[in-house]
Every structure is written in C-alpha cells, then in structure tokens.
C-alpha cells in the first residue's frame, strides 16, 4: 500500500514539475531592462510622428513568470495631426527566458476611433483570453504564441548569419482575435546612414497581406543593426497614398555597444 502511494506521489510530482518547466528557453544578450529608443517618422516633408520603444527597468511577474514590460507609444505631430490625430499605446509583458508573450495591452486613439483591449495568454492550455468593451472571449492559440510586439523582439534573438538571402522566418502571432504567421524575409546585408554615423545593417521585409493601407506585400522594409543589439535603425513604408520613413533619433540603455562608424 505504502509502495503504491509512493509511486502515485512520484508520478504526480514529476508530472507537475514537467508542466511547470515546459517553457522553452532562449538564451539571449540582445536586449534587457532599461532599453529606450525614440524614432522620428517623416511623411514627405512633414515630421509626421514620434514613436518611443521602452523596456521597463523592472521585471514583472505575469502568470507566475518573470517578464520584460515593453511599452510603445506613437503620437502624431504638428500639421500631420490635422488630418490624422493618433495617440496609440501598446504594451507587452514578454517572458524573460521563453521570449513569448504572457500579456498584451493596447489603447488606440486614432481620430474618433477608440479601442482598449487586454489579452492574457495561458501557455499551459494554449489559449488567449481577450477583454475589451464587448466583454471577454477565449481563443485557441498555438505553442509559443507571440503578440504584435514580442514577435519582433523574438526576431532580435535569431542568428541571421545562418540564413540565406530571401529566406523566410515565420512567427505565430495573435492579433485582433486571430492567429496568423508573421512572415519576415531576410534580404541580406546593407549599410544605413544615420545621425550617429553609418552602421552595418540586416535588411528585413515583413510580407504584408492585401490591404487598404500598405502598397503590396513588400511595402515595409526594415534595417536592423548588424550587431549584438539587432535594433531597428530605419523603416520605410510604402502607402497607397505617399510613404513613411522612420529613423532612430535617440537611444540609451542598450545592452551592447553600437558599431557606428
């Protein structure tokens, strides 16, 4: 009887331990707490917007897991606000070791449109619980699901030296109550000129589906620093009406030195 109890206890104990330890581990030194980046967005001759990407100096507990809290704020400027007034805030609580999303929040203010939404991910049961002004809904999601922010931070952990030009990377991402594969094509290496000097960069192209905003599947081009940080340095966006260019304007708290020259 005692031996049978011991066997049951052992099975329960090790099964529980495996469940708690079922997360993947992605060692990385590309980013950390306190990273702060600011970008200036140009639309033709206009200074159209500012964007701030900030990793909190503190680590937060979400779903019993330590998480980076990443905050992104985008705000239109000056004359551009006359016809496109935007104040968007996005937040991601990203698991520090698994590099997956535990929680996602967005507060969208675009002209008269408003949207406040929180998504909590349960990686043990592979579901996402979304709460907004319409109530709460649960959705099935795949393993290692990302949100719109954590997906790009996950890309920063990849070793692009193992990819060939035009090779594709796919990241399962949950956004607007749907699961889709974020597809990013590695285009090769380049050099980008910035206010801080030139820097070697990796050129990436997210593959965009047909939509009313972006002009074709190759309408977004991202240059990421070809160093240990892998930070977006410059972004070009082709719209059906005009184009946007986003460039880094300020930074601090990088985990590694940038290789400006």
Overall description:
The protein is mainly β and 261 residues long. The protein contains two helices and 14 strands. Strands 8-7-6-5-4-3-2-1-14-13-12-11-10-9 form a 14-stranded antiparallel β-sheet. Strand 4 and strand 5 form a beta hairpin. The protein is globular, with a radius of gyration of 21 Å. The protein starts with a helix and ends in a 9-residue tail after the last strand.
List the helices and strands and how they pair.
Layout: H1 2-20, E1 36-43, E2 46-62, E3 65-76, E4 87-95, E5 101-110, E6 113-122, E7 127-132, E8 135-140, H2 150-155, E9 167-175, E10 178-194, E11 197-206, E12 220-225, E13 232-238, E14 243-252
Antiparallel strand pairs: 1-2, 1-14, 2-3, 3-4, 4-5, 5-6, 6-7, 7-8, 9-10, 10-11, 11-12, 12-13, 13-14
Shape: globular
Mean pLDDT: 88
The radius of gyration computed from the alpha-carbon positions, rounded to a whole number of angstroms, is: 21 Å
Helix/strand order, N-terminal first: HEEEEEEEEHEEEEEE
**Number of β-strand runs:** 14
Characterize the biggest β-sheet: 14 strands, antiparallel
Q: Numbering strands along the chain, what is their spatial order in the largest sheet? A: 8-7-6-5-4-3-2-1-14-13-12-11-10-9
Helix % is: under 10%
> Structural class, from helix and strand content?
mainly beta
Low-pLDDT stretches are 1-20
What percentage of the residues does DSSP assign to strands (E)? over 45%
Cα separation of the termini: 73 Å
- Total helical segments: 2
Oligomer kind = single chain
């Amino acid at each position: 009887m005692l031996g049978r109890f011991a066997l049951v206890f052992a099975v329960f104990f090790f099964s529980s331990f495996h469940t708690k330890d079922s997360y993947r581990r992605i060692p990385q030194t590309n980013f950390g707490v306190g990273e702060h980046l600011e970008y200036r967005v140009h639309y033709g001759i206009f200074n159209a917007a500012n964007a701030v990407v900030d990793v909190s100096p503190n680590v937060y507990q979400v779903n019993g897991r330590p998480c980076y809290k990443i905050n992104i704020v985008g705000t239109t400027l000056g004359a551009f606000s006359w016809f496109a007034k935007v104040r968007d805030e996005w937040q991601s609580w990203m698991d520090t070791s698994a590099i997956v999303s535990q929680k996602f929040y967005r507060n969208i203010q675009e002209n008269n449109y408003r949207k406040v939404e929180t998504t909590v991910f349960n990686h043990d049961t592979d579901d996402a619980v979304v709460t907004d002004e319409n109530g709460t809904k649960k959705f099935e999601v795949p393993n290692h699901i990302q949100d719109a922010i954590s997906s790009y931070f996950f890309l920063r952990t990849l070793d692009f030296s193992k990819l060939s030009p035009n090779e594709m990377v796919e990241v399962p991402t949950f956004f607007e109550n749907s699961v889709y594969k974020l597809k990013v094509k590695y285009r090769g290496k380049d050099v980008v000129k910035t206010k801080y000097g030139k820097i070697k960069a990796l050129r990436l192209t997210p593959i965009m589906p047909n939509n009313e905003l972006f002009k074709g599947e190759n309408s977004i081009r991202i240059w990421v620093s070809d160093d240990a940080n892998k930070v977006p340095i410059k972004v070009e966006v082709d719209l059906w009406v005009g184009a946007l260019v986003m460039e880094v304007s300020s930074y601090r708290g990088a985990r590694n030195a940038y290789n400006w020259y």
